[in-house]
Every structure is written in C-alpha cells, then in structure tokens.
Automatic annotation (TrEMBL):
It is a multi-pass membrane protein. It holds the Pfam family MASE1. InterPro entries: MASE1. The chain crosses the membrane at residues 12-32, 38-54, 85-106, 118-141, 153-175, 187-208, 220-240, 247-265, 277-298. The lineage of its organism: Bacteria, Pseudomonadati, Pseudomonadota, Gammaproteobacteria, Enterobacterales. Keywords: Cell membrane, Membrane, Transmembrane, Transmembrane helix. It is found in: Cell membrane. This is Transmembrane protein. Residues 16-299 form the MASE1 domain.
Length: 427
C-alpha cells in the first residue's frame, strides 16, 4: 500500500521544492556573475518563477512570492546589518512582481485551445513586462547608486528575457503532464537517448575544443558549426518528446555556458568582452529553446484528437455507474487521468460531482440522467484532482443498460487536449 500524505503536506512540499529550484538556479546564475556589474548577467530564477506561477493555483501565489523573496535574500551575501538586510529584502521583493504579471497575463489573455496564441502571448508579455521592470528597477538603482541607466537597463532586460525564454520551457517540459507528448515506444526512446549522446559529443567538440584554423580562416563556418547541436536538439524533441527536449536543452545549456565561461567556443571572440560573449551564448540558447517550444506546438496540433472535444485517442478509463445507488465501479486505474487518489474518493456519484467544476457539474449530471440504450455524444468537463489541479476530461459514449434489474450507466473517461481549467476564474 502506498503511503498517504495529507494534501497540505504535499502542497507545502511542492512550494518548498519550487523555492529550492529557484535558489539553485540563482546559485548557478551567480556563478557567472561579473564582480564589476551591479546586475547579474544571467538570471535563470526569473524563468523558474514564471513556470511556478504558470502551474500553481491562484491561492498559492502569496506563498510563492514569500518563498522566492526569501530565496533571493539568501542569494544576496551583501547584507551585514539590519539596514542592509532590509534593503536586500526590498530589492528581492521587487524582482518578483514582473514574473507574477507575466504568468497572470498568459493565464488571463491567452486564447483557449490555441497553443500558438498562448506562446505568442507569453513571448510578448515577457518582452514588454521585462522592459518595464528593467526601466523601473534599473532606473531606481541607477538613481540611488549614481550609475549609468542605459547599461543597467539593457543588462537587466537581457538577463530577464534570456532567463525566462530558456528556463521556463525546460521546467514546463518536465512538469506539464497534461500537455506532454512522450516517446510512445522503446524504439523512439532508444533513438532519443542515442541522439542525446550524439548531442553531448557534438556540443563538446564545437564548444569545448580549440579549432584554431577554423576560427581564424573560416569564422562563418565556426559559427555554423554551432547550428549542429540545434538540429540534434530538434530531433531529440521529435523522438523523445517533451521530457527529452527539456533534457536536451538543459544539457546543451550547461555545455555552452560552461565552455563560454572558460573562454572557449565560437561565442568567445577576442573582439568581444566576457559579458558580450555570455549574452551571445544566452541568445543562442534562447533561440534554440523557442524553436523547441514551436516544435511542441506543432506536435500537439498534429496529435490524433477529436476537434470538437479535444479527446486524445486512447482507451481511457471505463466505468459503471449504478443509477439508483450512485455507486461507481471503475474498470481501469483512474489515477492514469487524475494522478494520486485516496481510496474510495471516487466511489460515489456525489463525491465525484463535488470535484467537478461548478460550471460543468449540472451538465454532467444531466448528461448521465438523459442516457438511454443508445450511445450519447461526448461531453467535455473539468474535474479537480486531489493535488488541487484542474484536469479536463471527456465523458464519451455513455449509455444506460439494465443488469440484474438495476439501471447501469456505462461510459468512458478520456483525457482532452483542451485544458479549460487553466483559464477558469473560479477560485
């Protein structure tokens, strides 16, 4: 029997895990910090924060803001007195609202069931809000410390957008189970893993080994070689799915940034400063990540699904509902659709309907009551899993039968690619 953990404990663990990932991303970013610069050159925590706010419940936002603010304070080693500590808390808090606003804009204004529109809203929101944030925060910092505003603005702006463009899709590829496309067979997984090994070798040669003749006599070719890892990442994303794409991006990012920091590779040129080389490497990684994002959109749009309900082809979970007693019998493991379940949580129709979205509850009840011996059409609805997340499902082909003198409703639940719950305003 699997151990049962209370919901509040699970949610607390998830929030603290976000804080730990944020903190580790900050340590990684500060590893490449320029001592002469007042603003970090690389800032991956911005992307981690956006991913957290995109995937979290609205009610968890205050806790995440506090956790990320405290993590920022821990990353700041300059505070030595109560005054400097207070200043550190203030700056740490001011770095969070921009990520909250980006996530809110995406969740509020992205067009339902239009993946491309969601991505475009995310890109535009990141560019506009990061620019405003760099203008306000960078301008205030420049005014207080009497430093050049333009330099601080561009450095903060580039650090934020590259951190978000690179880190957010990687994290979402790991956690977004609803939208995930995964390798469906052993052959695809084997091909994906083999390509990952090729990626490690190719990126290691291009970025980690000196190619003096190419760098001196064929500079364009030297930069062109950097396109080889991008092509391999695209192939991994196709064969190995979302998870493999995130692993490939993380691997490529680690190799590129490490060797660029070691003054190696095509992005470290004698005519460029250390900061400019890192900015070039980050731009390269951000562009690669955006390509992966668009491939994911294309993969999702070509999956075999019902255009009316978004039902993804598959067996789903079959059920039998006793119309008089309201008792469910599930023929398959319902956890395949809803994740971890408490024993008996979905045994009675009233318990199930309590978890259905308020706007869909009566529609689903009517859908069952109106069943006849003929199959009824599919119905899309939202239901809340035990982890608090809303999941969009399709009740397909329910019909009423008579068994041992009792009315039995037989139906099937399947996953839908139309994630209606992401945009619900019900708290």
């Amino acid at each position: 029997m699997k151990p049962y953990f209370p919901m509040w404990l699970q949610q607390s663990f998830i929030l603290l895990l976000w804080g730990l990932i944020f903190y580790l991303a900050g340590l990684t970013s500060l590893r490449f910090d320029d001592p002469e610069s007042s603003i970090a050159i690389i800032w991956f925590p911005a992307g981690i924060a956006v991913a957290a706010f995109l995937s979290a419940r609205w009610r968890d936002y205050p806790a995440l803001i506090i956790i990320f603010t405290l993590a920022n304070v821990l990353l700041d080693e300059e505070w030595k007195s109560p005054l400097t500590f207070a200043i550190s808390v203030l700056y740490s808090f001011l770095s969070i609202p921009s990520t909250v606003i980006i996530a809110w804009v995406v969740r509020r204004f992205a067009r339902l069931n239009d993946d491309l529109h969601i991505i475009l809203v995310w890109i535009m929101a990141t560019l506009v809000i990061s620019a405003l944030d760099s203008f306000v925060v960078g301008g205030g910092f420049a005014f207080v410390h009497d430093e050049p505003f333009i330099e601080l603005f561009w450095q903060g702006f580039v650090a934020d957008i590259t951190g978000i463009f690179f880190a957010t899709p990687i994290v979402m590829g790991f956690i977004n189970k609803n939208a995930a496309y995964s390798a469906s067979n052993r052959v695809s997984k084997t091909i994906g893993f083999t390509l990952w090994l090729v990626l490690c070798a190719t990126a290691g040669v291009v970025f980690g080994h000196e190619l003096p003749w190419v760098a001196k006599h064929a500079t364009a070719l030297y930069f062109g070689l950097a396109c080889l890892p991008i092509a391999i990442v695209m192939m991994i994303c196709i064969f190995w799915g979302n998870l493999g794409g995130s692993v490939a991006l993380l691997t490529l990012g680690a190799i590129v940034i490490y060797f660029t920091d070691q003054h190696q590779g095509p992005f470290f040129q004698k005519s460029l400063t250390y900061t400019e080389s890192l900015f070039l490497a980050l731009s390269y990684l951000s562009a690669t990540t955006l390509l992966v994002v668009f491939i994911r959109v294309v993969r999702r749009s070509t999956r075999n699904h019902d255009p009316e309900t978004g039902r993804i082809v598959g067996n789903g979970v079959f059920y039998r509902l006793n119309a008089s007693s309201g008792a469910f019998v599930w023929e398959n493991d319902l956890a395949l659709l809803l994740g971890h379940l408490e024993p008996g949580a979905f045994d009675l129709v009233d318990d199930v309907l309590q978890r259905v979205h308020p706007r869909d509850r009566e529609k689903l009840r009517t859908h069952w009551l109106s069943c006849s011996q003929d199959k009824r059409g599919s119905m899309i609805f939202r239901i809340q899993a035990l982890n608090g997340q809303w999941v969009t499902l399709v009740d397909k082909g329910s019909m009423r039968l008579v068994s041992d003198g009792e009315d039995i409703i037989v139906g099937n639940w399947q996953a839908s690619r139309y994630h209606l719950a992401l945009y619900t305003r019900v708290r």
